[in-house]
Write a structure and sequence with these properties.
Elements: H1 4-9, E1 11-15, E2 27-32, E3 35-40, H2 55-58, H3 60-64, E4 74-76, E5 85-87, H4 90-108, E6 113-116, H5 128-139, E7 145-146, H6 152-162, E8 179-183, H7 196-205, E9 209-214, H8 219-224, E10 227-230, H9 236-249, H10 255-261, E11 262-263, H11 265-273, H12 283-290, H13 294-306, E12 310-314, H14 324-337, H15 386-390, E13 394-395, H16 399-405, E14 417-420, H17 425-428, H18 432-441, E15 444-449, E16 461-464, E17 473-476, E18 483-487, H19 500-511, H20 522-532, H21 536-539, H22 543-549, E19 551-553, H23 564-568, E20 582-583, H24 587-592, E21 620-623, H25 639-644, E22 648-651, H26 653-658, E23 666-671, E24 674-682, E25 690-692, E26 706-707, E27 731-737
Parallel strand pairs: 6-14, 7-13, 8-9, 8-12, 9-10, 11-20, 14-15, 15-16, 21-25, 22-24, 24-26
Antiparallel strand pairs: 1-2, 2-3, 4-5, 4-16, 17-18, 18-19, 21-27, 23-24, 23-27
Helix pairs in contact: 4-19, 5-19, 6-14, 9-12, 9-13, 9-14, 12-13, 16-18
The chain binds ligand MGD (2 copies) and molybdenum atom.
One ligand MGD binds near residues 20, 633 and 695.
């Protein structure tokens, strides 16, 4: 029987975590003596509305109360990167940081200050990614990065094709589909909306056929797919071109849809039929490129064209590559060819899946101000030509090169100091060994962090940060919701931890920046944020109920369908493109005049593909998808989650055997950028010629430069595609027994 005394001491707090995860689990945190002792998931009684809690949120208390959390400000006591620190007071820490900021601004100009922000804390008020830009804008400016590390390829493609990034349907619409093609989408592992798997399973029960096109036999495919079509990474566009070829030559495409809603199909057809380059994009041609039998390609083309409605689900993984944007443009073009855009049970494609109701509502109630460093010169946003943006900002996947080479290397600034929060980029962007080099050379590095991460070890100054359990805030569900979540503070801050906002407020006094402090109670600010936001204010009419429930679920009368208005009433609802139509041919892209960005989607060979001369030396294509048991590198320390899924490298039995490797063997994977030590997972679940290691394990180089942590980015390239995608899934490696 329950001890009544004990239960009286326990408070139940409704909250969520704020990780950069594709879902948002409503949680009931049981708190006793400033400690979370138990966690329950969503208690919504309707099983179709209940948001099933993920394994990471079930382990959340092991993260919040982990013994290795940073508890005090510290300054470096050893060599850079060595990880030795000494404890200091907040006063000393803020003196060091404010002196450095002032000195750098005055001596070298504000552009020499690099601000590294990230999505590590996806809430609206306390995030450093919101608070620090506002502070530094008032202080005189800074240099920062551009290019969404997650999805720049998909963003670019959606803007070209549709003029909008809101290309998703609410998830229950999958129940209207007859055929669902999971093209590089694995929501059973990488959370892509907390309710997604539930609706995918229901769609399957409802009779939908499901086909997965993937180099790996994914968890989602194992759960719901009727068929797995293994494909080489980076070659999806060749297969899609051949599907277009089959539809055109067999007259299976929806010409009246194309005539009414799109422009440029004729030019695309010229490319597909080979009128443009002398190469018809036949299934036989594609087979040689992508490793999928010609007949399988033709069958899928016929099946997709016949099943109405059908949802081709492209996502961001294949788009995070050297051909990133072409894959999403191609998918969207196939969707138009089959008349599936703007239709229930269809899909617009474009890789993003967001809907404008529940999508990441970043609060506009606290204007960040303008960055003086960026107020003159070319525009930063709103251009498809990334060269316009390069002038003032650093591409996210080029941070290390920018620090090492500065203006002499064509970057916008000579970086003299950096301040980082809500990211672990040493671990999470391309080429960690170059990052090691850059961070060792960087004159001064301040890091706001919760843990002594791979990157935090390189800090000169470390500022300890609270977790979402230690403050109240507004979080959001992405990509599709539709619901809003409220984090109620569960425990008082541990140790001397503060939120980034609180750190910025304290620092503003040391910097002499006036009027930075918000000067109101946390709860009042949160209410103001909800009320001021044009979308949330429409739905959340009772703030107190929202706070008490920790969630506001939006009741949709019918599923949200991207571009429904544009399709049902095109006269009054043009697409937001220059032509007002879906642009299969884009004049804006033609004007960029770059071979990497053709005006119609194309298969373009890339570096480190199977035709690269490097393939002789490094004959395996490496995939680095998102880990099931972590959010990127977050929660890496949580023992439960490590046990749930050990860090391994997937390799096909034929590739393993050729290297004398057995399941569980210690192996090394390497290329010219680095070498990792990891264990082999020998499995038929991956296509021969392809290996896979999930991203996010912490970089941990030994004295010989071998990364004992086996961080995926020790092997990836620090480069980007023509449309700005970070190329995390375009690397060649070799594998050998350790
Ligand atoms: N190889 C490979 N690399 C990838 C990807 C891939 O597919 N393959 N995916 C990319 C993608 S999509 C993404 S989004 C990025 C993610 O890249 P990052 O954002 O760098 O990754 P996280 O591991 O989420 O790191 C977030 C960090 O923020 C810290 N943090 C959490 N809350 C707070 C806070 O309130 N304040 C401060 N100051 N810190 C906080 C956490 O402790 C953690 O160290 O990784 C990218 N990297
Ligand atoms: N558990 C968990 N969930 C997460 C995250 C997390 O870290 N952990 N991170 C969240 C974030 S920030 C993001 S941006 C999203 C990312 O979501 P995604 O970008 O969709 O996720 P990935 O895992 O990178 O890739 C999805 C799939 O693409 C496949 N793939 C890779 N390259 C190719 C290719 O060339 N062709 C084909 N056909 N398939 C390919 C991979 O095998 C993988 O199964 O996930 C979110 N959800
Ligand atoms: Mo991401």
């Amino acid at each position: 029987m329950e001890n009544p005394q004990q239960s009286q001491d326990v408070r139940i707090v409704r909250a969520t975590s704020a990780f950069d995860c594709g879902g948002r689990c409503p949680l009931l945190l049981h708190v006793k003596d400033n400690k979370i002792i138990r966690i329950e998931g969503d208690d919504h009684p309707d099983s179709d509305r209940q948001l099933r809690t993920c394994l990471r949120c079930r382990a959340y208390r092991k993260y919040v109360h982990h013994p290795e959390r940073l508890m005090h400000p510290q300054k470096r006591a050893g060599a850079k990167g060595e990880g030795r620190f000494e404890r200091i007071s907040w006063d000393e820490a803020l003196c060091i940081l404010s002196d450095k900021l002032k000195e750098t601004r005055d001596k070298f100009g504000p552009e020499s200050i690099l601000l590294m922000t990230g999505g590590g804390y996806l809430a609206s008020l306390h995030s450093g990614s919101m608070a620090a830009p506002r502070l530094l804008n008032q202080f005189g400016g800074y240099t920062t990065h551009y290019g969404n590390i997650s999805s720049e390829g998909a963003v670019w493609a959606s803007l070209v094709q549709y003029g909008s990034v809101m290309v998703g349907h609410s998830r229950e619409d999958m129940l209207n589909s007859k055929l669902i093609i999971l093209w590089g989408w694995d929501p059973a592992r990488m959370i892509s909306g907390s309710n997604t798997m539930h609706h995918l399973l229901k769609a399957k029960e409802n009779g939908a056929r499901v086909i997965s096109v993937e180099p790996r036999y994914t968890d989602t495919a194992a759960a719901v797919a009727d068929k797995w079509i293994p494909i080489y990474p980076g070659t999806d566009t060749a297969m899609m071109a051949a599907m277009a070829y089959v539809m055109i030559t067999e007259n299976l495409h929806d010409q009246s849809f194309l005539d009414k809603y799109t422009i440029g199909f004729d030019k695309f057809k010229e490319y597909i039929l080979g009128d443009e380059d002398g190469q018809a994009k036949t299934p036989q041609w594609a087979e040689a490129v992508c490793g999928v039998p010609a007949e399988t390609i033709a069958d899928l083309a016929r099946e997709y064209a016949a099943a109405k409605p059908a949802a081709l689900m492209d996502c961001q993984g294949p788009a995070r590559s050297a051909m990133g944007e072409q894959y999403c443009r191609f998918a969207a073009t196939l969707s138009a060819m089959t008349g599936n855009v703007g239709k229930p049970g269809g899909s617009a494609c474009g890789g993003l899946m967001g809907i404008p109701i529940g999508h990441m509502f970043r609060m506009s109630a606290i204007p960040p101000g303008k960055n003086p460093v960026e107020m003159t010169g070319p525009k930063i946003k709103g251009t498809l030509d990334i060269r316009d943006r390069v002038i003032k900002r650093i591409h996210i996947n080029k941070l290390w090169e920018a620090i090492l080479e500065g203006k002499a290397g064509g970057f916008p600034a000579d970086v003299k100091m950096a301040w980082s929060m809500c990211n672990n980029y040493l671990n999470q962007i391309g080429n960690a060994n170059k990052g090691d080099n850059a961070l060792k050379k960087l004159p001064f590095f301040a890091v706001n962090e919760i843990f002594m991460t791979a990157q935090a070890r390189y800090a000169d100054l470390l500022l300890p940060v609270t977790t979402a359990a230690e403050r109240s805030d507004l979080t959001y569900a992405w990509p599709s919701g539709p619901y809003y979540t409220f984090v109620n503070r569960a425990i008082e801050p541990l140790g001397e931890c503060k939120s980034d906002l609180e750190i910025c407020e304290m620092l503003s006094d040391y910097l002499g920046v006036k009027d930075y402090r918000l000067g109101a109670k946390e709860e009042d600010i949160l209410k103001h944020m909800v009320d001021q936001n044009p979308v949330t204010s429409k739905y959340v009419t009772d703030f107190d109920k929202f706070k008490n429930d920790g969630i506001h679920r939006i009741e949709l009368k019918e599923p949200y369908i991207a571009f429904r208005k544009q399709i049902e009433d095109p006269e009054n609802n043009p697409f937001d493109t220059p032509s007002g139509k879906i642009e299969i041919y884009s004049q804006r892209v033609a004007d960029i005049n770059s071979s990497k960005c053709p005006p119609v989607p194309k298969y373009i060979p890339t570096f480190e593909d199977r035709n690269d001369p490097l393939f002789e030396k490094y004959p395996l294509q490496l995939l680095t998808p998102h880990p099931r048991n972590r959010v990127h590198s977050e929660m890496y320390k949580v023992e439960w989650l490590r046990e749930a899924e050990p860090h391994v490298l997937w390799i096909h039995p034929s590739d393993a055997e050729a290297r004398g490797v057995s399941n569980g063997d210690d192996i090394q994977a390497f290329n010219d950028r680095g070498r990792v030590a990891v264990q082999a997972f020998v499995t038929q679940r991956i296509k021969p010629g392809v290996v896979c290691m999930f991203e996010g394990a912490w970089y941990q180089p030994d004295e010989n430069g071998v990364d004992r942590g086996a961080c995926a980015n020790t092997l990836t390239k620090d480069d980007y595609s023509g449309g700005g995608a970070a190329v995390m899934n375009t690397s060649l490696v070799q594998v050998a027994k350790a």
